[in-house]
Write a structure and sequence with these properties.
By secondary structure, the chain is an alpha/beta fold. It has one domain (5-243): P-loop containing nucleotide triphosphate hydrolases (Rossmann fold, 3-Layer(aba) Sandwich). The chain contains 10 helices and 10 strands. β7 (166-170), α7 (178-188) and β8 form a beta-alpha-beta unit. α3 packs across α5 (116-132) and α3 (96-105) runs parallel beside α6 (148-160).
Length: 245
């Protein structure tokens, strides 16, 4: 079976700085695929190149059998890709409910939105999304009043609302307490049956318990890819994490 996502020889330069130096990567359907590596290794740059926030200097990116290398982030979203950045981007002055509603409406046509029956369907979908991330009781609260961890859960809920084929998460547990990180893992686990997940994360304990496949980046290059057990045994990975992390 072909990979859902195929990255081939992707390079990204910012002036004289080469952030990605020829990355080849496959992400299989239905897997949770983790990106790890030392600070500055190119993890977030690769995620943004996949999502369209950065266009590659060279190389190709294919998604679900289609070349998306030059597509805009909006166009990538329309073909089934969704991204949550590290910094929370919820609309703080709107309610928790309205944040998810807007995320759902972004994928709807105008005529669907004005039909009363469709509005009822959207309400059911919003509440289901909020219940999944333990936010239903906070539906009427302003998003800005949520705790940091709850805001992260809200944004993940928004990213999942359009039912993407691939969800990209950039350090979703950053700034969370150990208990919030544990709960985040529990909340994300059930989405495995619905979409593929690619995640950048510094918390190695979290990602080790969570992912099927890990790819380790170092200085813009892939150091190794494999199961969690294979990566734990990798002498190349051990050297990097012993000397640079």
């Amino acid at each position: 079976m072909a990979a859902l996502l195929e990255v081939r020889a992707v390079r990204k330069k910012f002036g004289a700085l080469q952030a990605l130096a020829g990355v080849d990567l496959d992400v299989r359907r239905g897997t949770f695929h983790g990106l790890i590596g030392p600070n500055g290794s190119g993890k977030s740059t690769l995620l943004k190149a996949i999502a369209g926030a950065h266009l590659p200097t060279s190389g190709t990116i294919s998604f679900d059998g289609r070349d998306i290398t030059r597509l805009t982030p909006y166009e990538r979203a329309r073909v089934g890709m969704s991204l949550k950045f590290q910094i929370t981007a919820v609309l703080r002055e709107l309610s928790v409910y309205d944040n998810v509603l807007l995320a759902l409406q972004s994928s709807q046509g105008v005529w669907s939105l004005i039909r009363s029956s469709r509005r009822r369907v959207l309400r059911d979908q919003v509440m289901t999304a909020l219940e999944r991330f333990r936010l239903a009781s906070r539906a009427d609260r302003l998003a800005g009043s949520l705790s940091h961890g709850e805001q992260q859960w809200l944004e993940i809920s928004m990213a999942l609302a359009p039912h993407p084929k691939l969800l990209l998460l950039d350090e979703p547990t950053a700034g969370m307490s150990p208990e919030e990180r544990r709960v985040t893992g529990e909340l994300l686990a059930p989405i495995r049956s619905e979409c593929t997940l690619m995640i950048v994360e510094h918390d190695l304990d979290f990602i080790r318990d969570f992912c099927d496949v890990l790819t380790v980046l170092d200085q813009g290059r892939i150091l190794d890819t494999g199961t969690v057990e294979q990566i734990q045994r990798s002498s190349r990975v051990q050297e990097v994490y012993t000397t640079r992390v």
